[in-house]
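Revision sheet: structure tokens.
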Amino acid sequence: MKKIKFVIVALSVATSLGIGAQISNAESESAVNSSVGKAPRATYWTTAYIKGSNVIKRSGPGTSYTNLGQFSNGAKVTAEAWSNGDILSVNSWVRLKTPGINGGYTYVSSKYVSKSK
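Predicted:
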């Protein structure tokens, strides 16, 4: 858990300072997978919109996770974000606040989530 917190804090600081930072897929996947079904790993959220018809809500960050329903095109959602408001995507998946479903969070492929309407 300490490694995950360090990676997230380091990326948040680097992003806020405008410094490019990268983490390996293994580290980012570990951060996402360890947070599935648990409290949020970030404290920042932003308004975003679904771009695409019948976009599947998943119980975790990948197509192997349970289909929990669909979003319609243009649906307004609350997406996990960096401190600067940019949408946080880990391994091409975005975590969304969805009260009453899957402990309050679902996941959508990042290609279907946008800051603009």
